Amino acid sequence: MKNTKEQLFANIWKIADELRGKVDGWDFKNYVLGFLFYRYISENITSIINDDVRNAINHPDPNFEYEDIDDSKVNQWIIDKYIYKKGFFIKPSELFNNLYKQVMKNNYDDLNVRISEIFKNIEASASGKPSESNIKGLFSEIDLSKNTLGDNVINRNKNLANLIKRIKEFDFFNTENDVDIFGDAYEYLMGMYASNAGKSGGEYYTPQEVSKLLAKLAINQRTKIYNVYDPACGSGSLLLQPHKILKNDDIHFYGQDSNPTTYNLCRINMFLHNINFAKFHITCGDTLIEPNIEDNTFFDVIVSNPPYSIKWEGKSNPTLINDERYKNAGILAPESKADFAFVLNSLYYLKENGIGAIVCFPGIFYRGGAEQKIRQYLIDNNYISAIIDLPKDLFFGTSIATTILVLSKSSIDKKVLFIDAIEQVTKETARSYLSDENIESILEVYYNRSDKEYFSKLVDIKTIQDNDYNLSVSKYVPKPIVQDIVDIKALNEEIDKLSNRNNELRNQIKNIIKEIDNE
After folding, report:
1. Contact assessment for residue 316 and residue 335, using Cβ atoms and an 8 Å cutoff
2. 452 secondary structure, DSSP code
3. pLDDT tens, position by position, 321-351
4. Where does residue 48 rank: exposed (0-12), middle (13-18), buried (19+ CB within 10 A)?
5. What DSSP character marks residue 175?
6. Angle between helices 25-54 and 153-169 (to 10 degrees)
7. For 172-284, where are the E strands, in sequence order?
């Protein structure tokens, strides 16, 4: 009998949590995620080579097992063939399964050295090839010399051996619906680490249900898109949502993140979802200052959950006011609050018929100064399609309510749809989440651009201009007036009880006075 994904994921987290021992899970995540990735690419390339040899037109070998052959039988032509197909190559002796066999023989005195060589060789296989930038540094976060793994080499090797044994226990192939199962397990683990990491967790992982909503808003019922971009991509869970929703293997993915750790996690996430190296372009750097997007590259879909109200160079960098992304607004986002810099960056890279959905800090929709002037630019040019207030407690590391800004360069009307989705929430212990029903309720009014009492309102640009470009949802979607329902019958009964009690007390007082007078 096959397991469900939920059973598999619960077991994976149990093992991952056991493995770390007394180590902070946030510090230990790179080892679990890194070795999960190593196992995946080993089994993936083994499967492809086995299929090719077993089904070859000339001289097929139905019993061929790549992991059983000697490295000397692998010539350069074979290596180059699979590097151009997969982006990397792994020699038979360096496959995860063969390392596991070595561990099972209790042969791990030099395990840390052996693993370091394997990871170095995998990365080096792409050197000078088109996939070099996609592969280089993928294993850099797995530091085999840290005391996190043990206080000396012997203990570190023992812990590495245990890690390899337990990673091998993950029963991916006895699971229902095993398409993308490695990638889904990887994202599950990242979500679990994020939920236990406090503030830092939210910096690299957007909860799946929020990612789904953002992607569906930006896809907007299209059945096919060419490319998607996230200028603050984190670990890539949001960037991959259009692929999951549309089931389209032809999408090209573009992302950038300033954090080297999350940059690596995002590239690994692409491989684990079987995205070919030629179709993802993930870079590390400051999006707001140096976007790594080729000239004349624009996007069908942009989805992003950038960091809220971070500092940036702003007007202290005199070249930015002439940057193509910012100059049309005539003003830069404040140096202390880069939110609108991310918005203008996304707007610039949208295709004329593209849509962007961005999670924003609510303050940017009503504050004055430069932010008000940028709102004026966006409204006057009809670039805002919708604004959606979300419930609080949806994201890891923060309890604040957030707001989605939907951008479009081709809005069909000169109106903005405001949606108050604060009550569209499902509670689960201390955290809130969006259920499928919550998401569909939001999408229904979004797709139809319809008014719904206390929930959504389609507002013309003139009204927004008259309100000094205040874009707070609460300004346009009123809250229901909540009045307590009074049960008259119960109230009268309570009054009668109080009246009777009052009479009793008066009689008692009279009796006490009589007794005092008789004395």
Report:
1. yes
2. B
3. 999 999 999 999 999 999 999 999 999 999 9
4. middle
5. B
6. 60
7. 227-230, 252-257, 280-284
